Amino acid sequence: FSFRYNNIHEYQLEHPTRVIEWTSEKTICVAGYSSDKNEILELLLPLKLFADENQGLCAERDFKVVHGGFSDGSIHCLKHIPGTRYIIVAIDYVTYFCCHELSSSNCCFLLRCVVTNDGFNSNLQVWDLGGDDCDVIKRTGVLQLKSASSDKGVKITPGLTGGPCVLHGSQISDIQLTELTSGKPLYSLGKDIPDLLSSLQFVSGSVFVACACNGDLYVGDTRKPSALQNNPPGGREGAHWCMGVKTDLSSSDPSSCSVARLSSSCQVVVSDLRDLRAPLCQAQLHVQRKTTGDDFMKVTWAPALDNCLAVSGFDGMVQIYDTASWRPELMEFQPLFIHRGHMMSDDQFDTSSAVVTTHVWHPSRPRTVLSAAVDGSVHVWDWVDKATASC
């Protein structure tokens, strides 16, 4: 791998994960999705990865568990909620949250938290990731929410401004913003749109983009409950769609973000918020699909590289593409780089049995990517662009 990677490290989980969420520049949270009891872990990445100079002097070459706990059910969706210290109070069967001091035996301080969903109902579980004085990840609350299609689970995205809150929903009509400190809804869509939700993300403090499974994009504003734009894709290739959004959080103009929609027929359509109906560019990807399911489909933009996106969920590979050469007309393009590591961890080299379940880019290291597969493997790899010095 030396001629293709600057670094590559592997970790083996007891049960596979479909979630990798950054909790800091050097730590991630993963959790199992099996039907039995699952681990939820915060892992410290190998310190060798961050030793850009004198790597030979760095002894830490492995992932390290820094916090851990157990979930009684599967975890299909997990989001880290950046925020400040607050208190959780459990009363009866519902958990309420408050920001002021209380004298109660069932109060606990929450310094860092993640919110999860099991993929089968609309309830959200809140977890305390622990701190320096405790290495145990504990479930500290449950938000019992109603959803028209709760058996499909919900998608979650954290709020970007204000107190701790999450935007969530299982279909377009039940998208809601909920404040974690009170459990109160801050925003609800109030429109009867039963399309199932595949992806959800804020692009500014109040503007969000939602992608339906049929490929339609909806742009909403939590300040204006009645404002909702519907943007269907041109040329509906494939029965299932998801999206990846690249935002510039330093810009106050949400139209500066790019949206990539990925279809189950391995087509990517790139748009921006100025005109989501007309693609800026699109491509038929060079992917030989090895699975019939759509559960693991994922497209993500590189946060620290221009025009680069990664695609996974069709086989045992993560493919990276440079969209700079793509055109408005649909054409097939070759990937810039392919990570085949999860295929090679399988003795049979059978890509169908080593399907990648998820991948994420490092928030600041340009070519560092993490990926996981159905065999329980987790890889972190820093790839080399042999063609040019940058994308």
TrEMBL record:
Organism, scientific name: Salmo trutta (Brown trout)
The opening ranks of the lineage are: Eukaryota, Metazoa, Chordata, Craniata, Vertebrata
Annotated WD repeat ranges? 349-382
- InterPro entries reported in the protein's UniProt record: WD40/YVTN_repeat-like_dom_sf, WD40_repeat_dom_sf, WD40_rpt, Wdr73
Recorded hits in PROSITE patterns, A to Z, give: WD_REPEATS_2 (PS50082)
Q: Name one GO cellular component term.
A: spindle pole
Key words of the record? WD repeat
Q: What protein does this entry describe?
A: WD repeat domain 73
GO terms in the biological process aspect are: cytoplasmic microtubule organization
Per its UniProt record, what SMART domains does this chain match? WD40
